[in-house]
Design goal:
Number of strands: 7
Structural class: mainly alpha
CATH architecture of the largest domain: Orthogonal Bundle
Helix content: 40-55%
CATH class of the largest domain: Mainly Alpha
Number of helices: 12
CATH topology of the largest domain: Penicillin amidase (Acylase) alpha subunit, N-terminal domain
Order of helices and strands: HHHHHHHHHEHEEEEEHEH
Largest sheet: 3 strands, antiparallel
Distance between the termini: 46 Å
Strand order of the largest sheet: 5-6-7
Radius of gyration: 22 Å
């Protein structure tokens, strides 16, 4: 395997969980025009969570609505419903818990097993799909307009590098970086973490080491190498990162010195 092959793996946006959902949605039948539209979008989807994908945008909105519907079968309390599928009561970890990914898998298991206790208690497979797919289209119309051509993943999800002082509006404007269009799904190698109503996360650090030629290694991360907001290197890596590009990761001293832009000398 060479560096180019490793880049293709790291940037792969094919979402296997989404493809599982697609298999159910594309054969689902409904008299509701919104649900039918969602099914058509899912049927045309190629399984990739890239920025231009309408299918992944519909899927990610639908699957979390379906998880919410499954949680509602347990309790009528909206707060308990939210806590049950977003990973607990911790205000910091909520929305980023590893249980979120597991809940998607469990929800898909409910579709694969329509006679299961969970599926039956929630009203059955057809009702779950109707609720989930209807919600996706309704959300799109309310938040992204009536033109389906605008319902892309990039128009639903944008990531921001939020500085610790982002809660202060003026500081947020100065120090935070973004929003940035992102690709990648929760269950794809190029992972993108999106839950409606919660901050978006993504793979901010990628590294490939070529053991046959260390100077052929590469890296990318965001937003930039400098922590100084006045530096031109504070956020200059974001466009490269968003485009799936890398920068050289030089190892030999002569190679580093040859390409050095500047030096920072620390004196006692």
């Amino acid at each position: 395997m060479d560096v180019a092959a490793m880049k293709r793996i790291q940037l792969d946006t094919r979402d296997l969980a989404g493809i599982r959902f697609k298999k159910h949605a594309e054969i689902h039948e409904s008299s509701d025009p919104d649900v039918s539209l969602a099914c058509q979008i899912m049927k045309a989807w190629d399984g990739n969570a890239d920025r231009a994908s309408k299918g992944y945008a519909v899927y990610i909105l639908a699957i979390f609505k379906m998880i919410q519907a499954l949680a509602a079968a347990l309790t009528p309390d909206p707060k308990l419903q939210e806590e049950s599928y977003l990973g607990g009561f911790d205000p910091i970890l909520k929305g980023t818990s590893e249980f979120v990914g597991s809940m998607i898998t469990n929800a898909l298991n409910c579709l694969d097993n329509p006679d299961s206790w969970w599926t039956t208690r929630a009203g059955g497979k057809k009702k779950l799909l109707d609720i989930a797919l209807k919600h996706a289209i309704t959300w799109m119309r309310e938040h992204r307009g009536k033109n389906p051509d605008e319902w892309t993943y990039a128009n639903v999800v944008q990531m921001q590098y939020a500085h610790p002082m982002h809660t202060i509006p003026a500081m947020d404007y100065i120090f935070s970086v973004g929003p940035v269009d992102v690709g990648g799904g929760i269950h794809s190698p190029n992972c993108g973490w999106f839950i409606p109503g919660y901050p978006v996360a993504g793979v901010t650090y990628r590294q490939i080491i070529d053991m046959a030629d260390l100077d052929n290694s590469c890296i990318i991360y965001g937003p930039g190498q400098s922590g100084n907001v006045a530096s031109k290197h504070y956020a200059d890596l974001v466009p490269l990162w968003a485009a799936g590009e890398y920068i050289p990761m030089l190892w030999r001293r002569d190679a580093v010195e040859k390409h050095a832009e500047s030096r920072l000398l620390l004196k006692q």
